[in-house]
From TrEMBL:
GO terms for cellular component: plasma membrane. Pfam families: MFS_1 (PF07690). It comes from Chitinophaga eiseniae. Belongs to the major facilitator superfamily. Bcr/CmlA family. This is Multidrug effflux MFS transporter. Keywords: Cell membrane, Membrane, Transmembrane, Transmembrane helix, Transport. Gene3D superfamilies: Multidrug resistance protein D.
Length: 411
């Protein structure tokens, strides 16, 4: 279908789908500089504010399992619009949160709404573009998504300084409203609703079991999700590491966060060029080895208190560069075997990714050692585990599967 799209239509689709995918990351990153202010207003330690981040990750994980069947049963646009409406309402609710518990609950609901955008966007990539282009399209989406950690924390720090952390959630609500308008007006109906799909629990569970039973899916989904959870550990711990340990201001933290995101964005675009010479199956293990080595160096340096601010930034930058070459390829390889159940497959992939990410985020939040060691251990551990999963499980993939060959051809 991509060949039938004009260049203008192609670019507009990428921008809208990228913006939908970026809504969740914006919701995560924009309020990070406000952690100290939120903690002060709600009367809790800033480190405990990270629990509202963990609840957001849990909400996204649970919500994706909800939206997958709905997207296949009712088409893409109707569940997407309902999710965006829920996101807008809960964002306004977060503005008026008066306790940490209420903020945690509202962030969970906000996540339920935002994940409709992410699941629909991923499923529509599979609907609108040939399987052979999926990895490249995901890399382009990452380019759009990658602007969120560049813009969101910096914008959030200035909004918090000029107004308050409450205003951040007003801005997020307005962003959700713009996405709702764009989705209604410009997104095509990319998928004919499958009225044969049942929404009863048993058929839904059986459908998910069929998806997860595909060797290519579980190999690359779990390897990719565990590797990606290192990013969640970094995001959760970074406010404490930079603003508490290294004593940088909220504005400086925003700029550091923006700089580090360049590694994720830039490497995802380098990945697009690498795909001209190598397959995704070749790129993933090399990137995982690089990520694991970086994690091991990070642990050694953090444990021995050898890390300066510049050293920490450098290691995180390299780690994120490796991740930028892992995520687009594992996503494309995970979804390649599916056509009819692409919505369920994308939602299950996202749920696994966010669920494991929430676990990594929670683990880091439990420690308050005033060092970067918990972050380093978590990030290294996820990388090593992801590499192990890939090496053990990929032997179950049948190399003759046509979908695999079509997904990422060697040029």
């Amino acid at each position: 279908m991509a060949n039938e799209l004009s260049r203008t239509k192609y670019i507009s689709l990428i921008l809208i789908l990228g913006a939908l995918t970026a809504l969740g990351p914006f919701s995560i990153d924009m309020y990070l500089p406000g952690f100290p202010a939120i903690g002060k207003d709600l009367g809790v330690d800033p480190a405990r504010v990270a629990l509202s981040l963990s609840s957001f990750f849990i909400g996204i994980s649970a919500g994706q399992l909800l939206y997958g069947p709905l997207l296949d049963r009712f088409g893409r646009k109707k569940p997407l619009c309902i999710g965006l409406a829920l996101y807008i309402i809960s964002s306004i609710g977060c503005m008026y949160a008066t306790s940490l518990n209420s903020l945690i609950i509202l962030r969970f609901i906000q996540a339920i709404g935002s994940c409709a955008a992410a699941v629909a966007a991923v499923a529509m990539v599979r609907d609108l573009f040939p399987v052979s282009e999926n990895a490249k399209v995901f890399a382009l989406l990452m380019l759009v998504v990658g602007t969120s950690p560049m813009i969101a924390p910096t914008a959030g720090s200035y909004i918090t300084s000029a107004f308050s952390w409450h205003t951040v959630f007003l801005v997020l609500g307005l962003m959700g409203a713009l996405m709702l308008i764009a989705s209604i007006r410009w997104l095509p109906d990319s998928y004919k609703p499958d009225t044969t799909l049942s929404l009863k629990p048993r058929p839904i569970i059986n459908n998910f079991l069929a998806v997860v039973g595909e060797p290519q899916f579980y190999t690359y989904t779990f390897a990719g999700a565990v590797a990606f959870s290192g990013l969640f550990a970094y995001v959760s711990a970074s406010p404490q590491v930079f603003m508490d340990i290294y004593k940088v201001s909220d504005k400086t933290y925003g700029w550091i966060f923006a700089f580090l995101s360049i590694g994720l964005i830039g490497s995802s675009q380098v990945n697009s060029q690498l795909l001209k010479r190598f397959s995704s199956q070749q790129i993933v293990p090399v990137a995982l080895v690089g990520q694991s080595i970086t994690g091991l160096i990070f642990i050694i340096c953090a444990w021995n208190n050898w890390l300066s601010l510049a050293g920490t930034i450098t290691l995180l930058f390299i780690y994120l560069c490796c991740l930028g070459c892992i995520n687009p390829n594992t996503s494309a390889l995970s979804l390649a075997p599916f056509t009819r159940n692409a919505g369920s497959a994308s939602s299950l992939m996202g749920a696994i990714q966010m669920g494991i990410g929430a676990l990594a985020s929670s683990v880091v939040s439990l420690f308050n050692t005033h060092t970067a060691t918990p972050m380093a251990i978590t990030m290294c551990g996820t990388s090593l585990l992801a590499l192990l999963i890939l090496l053990v499980c990929r032997r179950n993939i049948k190399t003759a599967v046509a979908a695999t060959k079509e997904a990422v051809p060697v040029h």
